[in-house]
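Try it yourself: sequence plus zinc ion, in.
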Amino acid sequence: MAYRYMDELPVEALVRYKAKLDIVGLHQCPYKLKADEWTNNPKQWPKIEYPDVYHYLINTPGVFSQQPKANHRSLEAYNFFVSGWVQTVLHIKVGTNTVLKADVKPSWRVTEDCHHSWVAVDNSACVLTAHCDCMAGLGESCSHIGALLYKMEAAVRLGYTDSACTDVPCQWNQCFTKKVTPSPVARINFYTEKSQQQSPSGEAPRNGNSSEIINPHFRTWKFV
Ligand SMILES: [Zn+2]
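Structure, out:
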C-alpha cells in the first residue's frame, strides 16, 4: 500500500503532501524510493534531543494549517518506542537534510499491519516536517511519528550516534518487538525459566503471603 500511497491520495491531501516534499527538497515520495537507497546507520542520524522533539510536536506550526500542532497526546508515544513498536530506522540524505523512516506497529491491535512514518530533519537537528500513512498522519504529528522521533532521541542520548563502532548502533536499531501473539492473561507466563527453576516447587516464586508475587526481572505484581 505504501508504494502507491501518493497516487491514491485525494486532491486536497495530495496538495498538503506535496507541500511537505517541497520543504524537504524531495522530488519523489519517500515510500517510492528503492530499498537500496536507504541506509541503516544511527551514526549518521541528526543529533535530535528531547527539546527538538517537544518543539516539533507542540510548538511548530503545521505546513498547511500554520497553527502550532500542540499535539500533547503524541508526547505519550514514548511508550510506543520503549515497547518496541518502532522497527529499524533507515535514512537517506537529501542535500543537507536527512529523511528517516520506520515501520511502527499500531498501538491497539498487535496483529495489524505497521504504519509507515517518516520525518525530515535539517543539519541543525530541527525537525522540518513528518508524515505517516495512518489516519492522523496528514496532520504531521501522530503517535507513530512521535515514537520514531523518540527512538532517534534515545540513540543520541545513549551515545549510538557517536559510537566509534558501527555494528553496535546498527544492532540496537534492529532490536524491537518483532511479533506479539495475543493470549488470555491466565496463559501468560510472567516468569523466566531461570526464576521458576529457583522456586522449590518449580512454580512461580511468591513473597511470604500469597498475595504478592515477585518477578525479579521486571517488577512486583500485587493481587488484590
Ligand atoms: Zn501515524
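One thing you can check immediately is this: The longest strand covers residues 97-104.
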